Amino acid sequence: MATSSAYPPPPPYYRLYEDYEKDPSSASEPPPPVDGPYQLFGATYTARATLIHMLESQIQRRKQAIEDIKQRREEAQKLLGESLLILDGNQPSLPAM
């Protein structure tokens, strides 16, 4: 009769961390950050240029959001002014005493 396991065996790289509980400093160091060009889905990127591009697009989105808020505030003020003029024109005049 053959024995079977409910789970597959762990991947072989688990041996890199066998002694981690005894000595946490035994784990290998992470690789250094990417510096220079790299390829992603066939296109070449630079880490620094990508970061600058992301920041510039974020700044542009924030500027656009601020402009939208200013425009909506001006429209609301205009509508409020028109509403007040309409209410003022429909106000019944009080008899003079």
From TrEMBL:
Entry's localization field: Nucleus
Nuclease recorded as keyword: no
Coiled-coil annotated residue ranges, if any: 52-82
Species this chain originates from: Oryza punctata
Record-level Gene Ontology MF annotations: transcription coregulator activity
SUPFAM superfamilies reported for this sequence: Mediator hinge subcomplex-like
Main location: nucleus
Gene Ontology biological process terms in this record: regulation of transcription by RNA polymerase II
Assigned protein family: Belongs to the Mediator complex subunit 7 family.
UniProtKB keywords: Coiled coil, Nucleus, Transcription, Transcription regulation
Disordered, as annotated region: 1-36
Name of protein: Mediator of RNA polymerase II transcription subunit 7
GO cellular component: core mediator complex; mediator complex
InterPro entries: Med7/Med21-like (IPR037212), Mediatior_Med7 (IPR009244), Mediatior_Med7_sf (IPR044888)
